[in-house]
Amino acid sequence: MAHPNPQSSDRRRSRSPTQGDNNRFRSRTPPTSSLPPKPAPQPIQFPIQPLQRFQGSSASIKRPREIASFSFDDNHSYLEDDSGIQYYCAPQIGADLCEGFERFRYFEEKEDPHLDTLLTRLVSLEKKGERVRADFVTWRGMVTKIMTSPYDKFASFEMFATLHDGTIYIEDDFPSRLADCASQSQSQHSQPPRNPHSPQNRPSQEMMTYWGYKFETLSLLPTPLIETSRDFIENRRDMVVDNHAQYVSVITTAFGPHSLILGGEVDGVWDAKSDPDTPDPPDYIELKTAEELGGDRRDVLKFERKLLKFWAQSFLLGISKVIVGFRSKHGILRAVEVYDTNKIPGMVRTGTGCWDGNTCINFTTAFLGHLKQTIKDDGVYKISLKKNGGVVEVSKIQERGTGKIISKEFLGWRKERDIAKQGTGAVG
Fold it and tell me: Which residue stretches does the UniProt record annotate as biased composition, category Low complexity (predicted)?
């Protein structure tokens, strides 16, 4: 389930605002007494509608290829290894996903993660070989938001971007997301208290979020199945649910002529991770929960709309399978279904037809091209889509520098590398 910070997610944590972060990209313009202030430049707009211009055969897609990975340990500390990888083992049907909620060890991001850990891994990768090149570097969650926006009428996002050395780096607008989460939390807590055991009451948002993590705990093992004891497997339902540890895959891909490096959290692997020296991609899985389907067509429509995000998240990282745990309204696991990621768009096309994968791919390809035409100079840009807005806007909010989007470590390494290459006469 996916943005470690990857973002992603897909299902991500609530956070509390950090004072002053909203002003970190404000331009510092010297005061003047003789000239009126310059009007702010108008945002450059990219309309989502009409979708017809994105329909038809999809743009060429370069198959995602993993170039690196890293982990976060039980304290959410960065580790440059595969220790965070977990292995799928089917959960027990009938399990109560509410069980253990009061012991949930919940990780909350307290500070803006930017792209720091992803860039740290790229620095390490470059120190072992040639420079990693791409038109875009970002978390998987940012591209998921863009890719699903043509069919998500409630879609909204705010991102920051900067151009450095020919690459556009994109990150989440962390302060805005914190403010949104705080507002939602305040709204929920202002409601009168509910009896959680009453069948008339819907579970809280916190409980529904927990169900997803509980399903992961019931479905994953820290070691391959053949190396895991029967006792451990049968007692997974008693384990404390903990979302501190994560495993992150770093891949290269391309939409048409636009190359990307993406980092994203991976829930687990189907059986065992393939040897990195083989051409076979890792058989990764994405774990999701959804309400069990009734006989009503509206239930099917609701589920197939959810499949849009499930598919996009998995498609972007090359995750081969989406495993959905169907649960009752009150969190009892009723069934588990395994979906081939590449077959999901066809399934929806012959079902409700509520979204089209080719249109999503073509929209993303066109929008990436739009960003390359818009973000051509130094400085910081804001990319935003308002709810029901129908238009993605790109505006420059800082004339110089990269804000904090690119870490000092990464900038320092690139400068050091360039100086070393100049000294040896190397090019590239």
Answer: 183-204
In the chain, the amino acid numbered 382 is K
Identify whether the C-beta of residue 410 lies closer than 8 Å to the C-beta of residue 123: yes
Phi, psi of 305 (to 5 degrees): -65, -40
- Quick: pLDDT tens for 48-90: 999 999 999 999 999 999 999 999 999 999 999 999 999 999 9
Both tokens of residue 395?
Answer: 């505006």
Measure the CA angle with vertex 145, ends 396 and 157; round to 5°.
45
Q: 347: which residues sit within 8 A by CB, 6+ positions away?
A: 304, 307, 339
Domain containing 371 equals 21-424
User: Would residue 10 count as lying in a domain?
Assistant: no
Residue type, 139: W
Contact between residue 292 and residue 327 where contact means Cβ atoms under 8 Å apart: yes
Residue 205 placed within a domain: yes
* 120: phi then psi, degrees, rounded to nearest 5: -60, -45
Secondary structure (3-state) at 3: strand
Domain-located, residue 226: yes
